[in-house]
Automatic annotation (TrEMBL):
EC number: 3.1.-.-
Name under which the protein is recorded: Putative pre-16S rRNA nuclease
Region (Disordered): 122-143
Superkingdom to which the source organism belongs: Bacteria
The family this protein is said to belong to: Belongs to the YqgF HJR family.
An individual GO BP term: rRNA 5'-end processing
YqgF/RNase H-like domain mapped to chain residues: 7-113
Length: 143
């Protein structure tokens, strides 16, 4: 893969109330939930505490890149959720610079993950009845 840097990436799933953080293996294959942070309006030196904690995690894991899920509409447009996530990612980028942020279209992440599991002979899983909870981050690579 061209431009693919080795190292542990963080995947960030920004919600209205919470921010889910997953850690990805250096090969970009498997993402594992790391922590769920409350979205916070409280600040430390003008930086929301959840963004401060993300910056700490980026430094702790020596992350070469942060992947943020972008909830675009099915038609590919930016609805209110995508606008909110872009603003969050912009603020995070200011705090963790020079570490880059990559926004990833998360519209079809469940479909793609199910197909990949099926191709590998894994039954149940993401959409199967054997799983009681679906993780949002399955891979740290786009596509």
């Amino acid at each position: 893969m061209s431009g693919f840097q080795r190292g542990v990436r963080l995947g960030v799933d920004v919600g209205q109330v919470r921010v889910g953080v997953a850690i990805c293996d250096p090969d970009g294959i498997l993402a594992t939930p790391l922590v769920t942070l409350p979205r916070d309006v409280a600040t430390i030196d003008g930086i929301p505490t959840d963004i401060s904690e993300l910056a700490r995690l980026v430094a702790l894991h020596e992350t070469p890149e942060v992947v943020v899920g972008l909830p675009v509409t099915l038609s590919g447009g930016n609805g209110p959720a995508a606008v909110s996530v872009r603003a969050y990612a912009d603020k995070l980028a200011e705090v963790i610079a020079p570490v880059p942020i990559r926004l990833v279209d998360e519209r079809m992440s469940t479909v793609v993950a199910s197909r990949r599991l099926s191709e590998r002979g894994v039954r149940g899983g993401v959409n199967g009845r054997s799983s009681t909870r679906r993780p949002r981050w399955r891979s740290c690579r786009a596509g």
